[in-house]
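Milestone M4 deliverable, item 7.
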Amino acid sequence: MHPTLQKPEAMLFDLDGTLFQTETLLLPAYHATFDQLRAEGSYTGETPPESEILGGLGMLLEHIWQRVMPGVDEQVHRRADVLLLDHQVQGLERGEGRMYDEVEATLKALRDRGIRLFVASNGLEPYVKGVIEHKGLSPLFEGLYSAGEFRTRSKVDLVRMLLETYGVQSAWMVGDRSSDVEAGRENGLAVIGCDYAGFRKEGELDGADVRIGRFSELLELLPKEADKANE
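Output delivered:
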């Protein structure tokens, strides 16, 4: 049983590992990126293990490449930015990538309850907006915020900017990484930790108010307004 939290005005969602099964799009693009880097002569050696990039999800992209390719020239990292994004966008256009189970139905149910929905992601703008648009979810969201678009240095700053811009007074931060927990805590939000992606390190969600094992459990955390109305 989960505790019932106070109904928020809005919910802010991380994208990768929260709404979107990132590996279903990322890993083919990751291998294609390194194939192209080698073909261009800007990288030699084997493709780093998939665990390196999956373990970096939730970080800013520049920090991900420092983890995946330490000691490699920054120009190669910036070229990898371009290639990875291109391959992911092409994959989306081919219909690749999957949302987690019940994401669309749950988001619609939250909207029906009058909750405003937003995305707050450390990803690049074309990727974040591309995933939501290609999966047909754009009409459900009031705003899609990405570190790539707003050049924020942390998710704390990104979330603060979103809350101020849209005049949100109460919200839940929903995500799967320590950056989501920090962003929620630093901005005075309830934090819902998504415990189903498996990309994080042990202890990353320790600061969350509640952990959920499937996305649809969000609905169980809300007060039963419909039940009261029928009494």
